[in-house]
Amino acid sequence: MSTATAPVSPLAMTVEEGVALLVLDVPGQPVNTFTAAAQDALRDAFDTCERDPAVRAIVVTSGKPGSFVAGADIEQFLGWTTPADGERASREGQAQFARIAAGKPVVAAIHGACLGGGLEFAMACHWRIATDDPKTGLGLPEVQLGLVPGAGGTQRLPQLVGLQAALDMILTGKTVRAKKALSLGLVDELVHPAILRRVALERARELAQGTRTRRERETKPQAFLLEENPIGRAVVFRQAREKVMQRTKGLYPAPLAALEAVAAGYQGDDAQGYRTEARLFGELSMTPECRELVHLFFATTALKKDFGVDGEVPPRLPIAKLGILGAGFMGAGIASVASPAGTLVRLKDASTERVAKGLAAVRDVLKEKLVRKQVTRPRFDELLLQVSGTTDYTGFADVDLVIEAVFEELQVKQQVVREVEAVIPPHAIVASNTSTIPIARIAQASQRPARVLGMHFFSPVHRMPLLEVITHPGTDPQVTATVVEYGRQLGKTVIVVRDGPGFYANRILAPYVNAAGLLLDEGVAIEAIDEALVQFGFPVGPITLVDEVGLDVATKAGKIVADAFGARMAPNESLPRVIAAGRLGRKGKSGFYAYDEAGKKGGVDASVYQLLPTGARRTTVPAERIVQRCVYAMLNEAVLALEDGILRSPRDGDVGAVFGIGFPPFRGGPFRYIDRVGALSVVETLDLLERDYPGRYVAARTLREMAARGGRFHGEGGGAR
Amino acid sequence: MTGPRSAPRRVAIVAGVRTPFVKAGTLFKSLSAIELGRQCVAELLQRTALDAREVQAVVYGTVVPNVQAPNIAREVSLIPHLPKGVDAWSVSRACASASQAIADAADQVALGHLDVAIAGGAESLSNPPILHSRAFSDVLLQANKARSIGQKLEAFAKVRPRDLVPVTPAIAEPTTGETMGQSAEKMAKLNGITRAEQDEWALRSHRLAAAGTRDGRLTAEMFPVYVPPKYAQVATADNGIREDTSLEQLASLKPVFDKRYGSVTAGNASPLTDGAAAVLLMSEEKADALGHRPLGFLRSYAAAALDPGEQLLQAPVLAAPIALRRAGLALADIDLVEMHEAFAAQVLSNLRGFESQEWAERAGLSRPLGAVDRDRLNVMGGSIAIGHPFGATGARLLLTLLNELGRRGGRFGLLTVCAAGGLGFAMVVERA
Q: How far apart are CA B316 and CA A428, in angstroms?
């Protein structure tokens, strides 16, 4: 008698009327990935089908509701130690799919996400049917993990959809929806989900009988000029390369490698392209960029299961109705993401004019969705209707959550908390969107502080992915968990941090920006500073960031942390001088950079130098040094935030920095960066900087201890999940 | 749930809200009646803290329907705030549509079929439907069915210039050909209502409405409408009220429907208006169970009809006595009256009718109802000043009546509405 149950096979096969139906359903996972077991099962099934004369055609579909195959098993990658490992895996995948492409007719029946290896498999099939459903999406996102498609994707996609469309998909990693996939020629037809299998089986029979053949993709005339001859293609590749360099500053090897792999497919024999793809795949898998992006992916995936509370996670309360106090930029922004998430929103401000402006701002954000055809017109009208405005507290009697986004001043916030608590139901949560005021101080005005916490959104709300949820010692864990879940419902990446000046993101941003300000004090050119940090991997430099956020906001935030943390945050001279001259940055169309009437950013506004300490005199500091002074201040502060208990884990700190303030994702975040460079090296650099700028670079105790014993923030082998 | 043989349940009017009423072609000109209705019901739900799952039906009225979406009530019930399983049907009783919608919903509650319903009406006269002539419509239909370009061209070749003249709807009675204004003019003559009396009534309407706006009593029943999609304008009050109008100004206007002997002018008639209104109805028990204190209860209602060619807008004189009899009350018992003012000539004719022996006998009474105390009538003005979105007025009258009854501590209220087709409607309410 067997005491162990046989493992459930990921693949179920039935044969009927000459067609084999393969249903992929990997046990223990919400979506299908090509795990080792799944790959084996697939290979065995195809071998069986090839050998069996009763099988004349094959249909492959997914047993998972809402998804086809989401990609390869990424965990596998971490086990590789040399480029040859990755190259071999790629060659095997290519060979497997080549066998499929050369064998009996195969129909891929796709419903839901069909990504990465899943799409590469589908492209090796002879016919692709997808469902006309919002869940259905096809893409090759490998670039986002620092890789290239490794199972023939760089070769088959251009053949199916043409060079330009293929490059667009591969270089960005974007997902195309069903209708677009059809018009590109990526799928051959769209059907209603209820008849997917039936139609797929029918097509398979037709392909076996020869009564259905694949249409050749029609090449549009302009595409013909560019794509069907080597000169035109050279133009396309050159333009694509320029675009990649512009976007990534050459810091990401993966898109450039992808270009190389695609181009190789047009040179030499068919095998050339596949060989190049495999080689590059292997090489990329060993790059630090790939490793860090994969770890970041794991970190954000794990974070999705974390509710920011210790122990058992309490049941979360539903948030059906949201009351927002303050219809300004942030309040309207929050409303614009709450409505698509299905929430009814009541937006309050002091006057009908302000409410009207807030509603118009919500409309502007939702209009983008309409223009991009992400929503239909009736849905757009519905989304607007879900948000209503008021100048009094009507409509607050049944809210589940209140977010206050009023003027950034303690008295004002305490006042609205008092007022709103008089009208909301007892279970309602009160959250503050403050970026600088301690939550505990706001909670002091509350009659039920257990239901008070911070929800710090970043601006603009509909684009910035991070949400900092800030708890004070009295916050009820159920409230925390509820708000975390709601933040995810809004599409945000949520970290929970403890109350403290600047919380996390602004706290680590402050010394970074300050260091840039000190460089300005010394006379370093604005563009030199910004360029250095952009070359490090930030999307924009610190001076541009200050202009974007607003010098007044930056100064206010800077003061809060300076008051709290003393010498190491002591402010620079440049910023106060510039703001005293009336320059507010982009919002005022005048700052460190020049802005035109429309608010578009131009070059550095040279007249600003007159306001700075060294005036027209410029000093040169090497880019590496600029990076050190700015980034190491941030790194140290991140460790201090962990030490002070603001952060619950280094993982939260990495994700928070990447998604909140643009820390280069391919470096993984502050803590992963420290691990990679080594705590010892970081401490040595800090000590040298401290010598030159006393009081600003005192290495955190944790760092010193770590340096002494050779420790890391994330587990050995870099697998902290 | 009560069975059909049980005694009818008492119907509570729990809450209500309306949009500001704005003149057609102004602030609401980009909004349809359906959009106005949706905004209004959405606001009603936002304000009452009612769990939307309790709502079982939306009954809504409009006079000029949208041909592509004729069941306005269903479109209103499909707002995201309400579950998709809420029933909905539309009501058409001309200017008494909202009143009939309320009565319909109330009947269902009284019968025990529903516990909670929303009723009301909306109108947009800014964009009246403009129809093609019959000849051009035939051409378009033929072209639509055509298989080839040649056949399509054949169809269009038949068009003559006069076929292209569009048909704009006039507010005329189909069986008599009389416009409503002409009917009002006729009533003024028949009932001896002078030009001066009409202008005075119009002045009264504007003065009292202006006062009600100033002191906030009238605006209390509205919500500010932030006009989508631009949100550049906000409607916060009825914009047809002329605080500064005078008898001289009114007297200077020319009669519209009879150039020679006429007395009905644009100034003493209600204007074309856009707007929406909605009320929340519940059985008394349900209101209790959910912890709502009603504005009042529906005591009775009645409708009446007469020959549109006779006196088109006089039917309230026949409906009011029936409503009062059903309520078991006399006119003297009524603390507050709201009468729809389609025209000053009409409301004054109605008032004269209440005092007339002849009309009393027609209504089956031995004695006339009596004079309506002017201090209790349209105390914050009426449709002439406030505006008259055809499909919404019935609900507006109810809201204004109940709210003001509450302020005055009165017990019983009466409202009357005249309607095209020679129809009339009356409703009696009782304060909680």
A: 49
Q: What is the reported pLDDT for A47?
A: 95
Residue of B nearest to A381 (CA): B229
Chain B residues whose beta carbon lies within 8 Å of the beta carbon of residue A320: none
User: Using CA atoms, how far apart are residues B280 and B218, in angstroms rounded to an integer?
Assistant: 19
Tens digit of each residue's pLDDT (9 = 90 or more) over B46-105: 998 899 999 999 999 999 988 889 999 999 999 999 999 999 999 999 999 999 999 999
Residue in B closest to A353 by C-alpha = B234
Give residue B168's pLDDT band: very low, low, confident or very high (50, 70, 90).
Answer: low
**Structure-block tokens of residue B29:** 């000109």
A689-705 in b/e burial notation, b at 16+ Cβ within 10 A? bbeeeeebbbbbebbbe
- Which of A220-224, A529-533, B169-173, B364-368 has the weakest average pLDDT? A220-224
> Which residue in A370, A385, A386 has the most chain B C-beta atoms within 10 A of its own C-beta, making it the best mutation to test that interface?
A385
Q: pLDDT (tens digit, 9 = 90+) per residue, B34-55?
A: 999 999 999 999 998 899 999 9
Local structure of residue B80 (DSSP, 8 states): T
Residues in chain B with CB shorter than 8 Å from the CB of A398 are 49-51
CB distance A426 to A349 below 8 Å? no
- What residues of chain B lie within 8 A of the CB of A390, using their CB? 46
Residue B4 burial class via C-beta count within 10 angstroms: exposed 0-12, middle 13-18, buried 19 and up: exposed
- Interface test with chain B among A376, A379, A384, A394, by most B beta carbons within 10 Å: A394
Q: Chain A: give the shortest CA distance to residue B230, in Å.
A: 6
B chain contacts of residue A355, beta-carbon cutoff 8 Å: 224, 226, 234
Q: For chain A, what percent of residues have pLDDT higher than 70?
A: 97
- Note the pLDDT tens digit of each residue in A144-178: 999 999 999 999 999 999 999 999 999 999 999 99
Catalytic choice (B40, B206, B340, B388): B388
Tokens representing A505?
A: 């993101």
Residue A304: DSSP 8-state: T
Q: Check if the beta carbon of residue B112 is closer than 8 Å to that of residue B1.
A: yes
Query: What is the b/e burial string over A611-631, where b = at least 16 CB atoms within 10 angstroms of the residue's CB?
Result: bbeeeeeeeebeeeebbbbbb
Distance (Å) from the alpha carbon of A154 to chain B's nearest alpha carbon: 44
**How many CB atoms are closer than 10 A to CB A499?**
20
User: Is A344's CB within 8 Å of B81's CB?
Assistant: yes
Q: A337: distance to nearest CA of chain B, Å?
A: 16
Residue B140 near residue B159, CB atoms below 8 Å: no
Upper half-sphere CA count for residue A584 (Cβ side, 13 Å):
9
* Number of separate helices (H) and strands (E) present in chain A: 29, 20
pTM score of the predicted model: 0.91
Which residues of A are known catalytic residues? 468
ipTM here: 0.89
The CA distance from B423 to A118, in Å, is: 69
Q: Which of B46, B51, B229 sits opposite A388 (nearest CB)?
A: B46
**Annotated catalytic, B418?**
yes
**Secondary structure class of B161 (helix, strand, coil):** helix
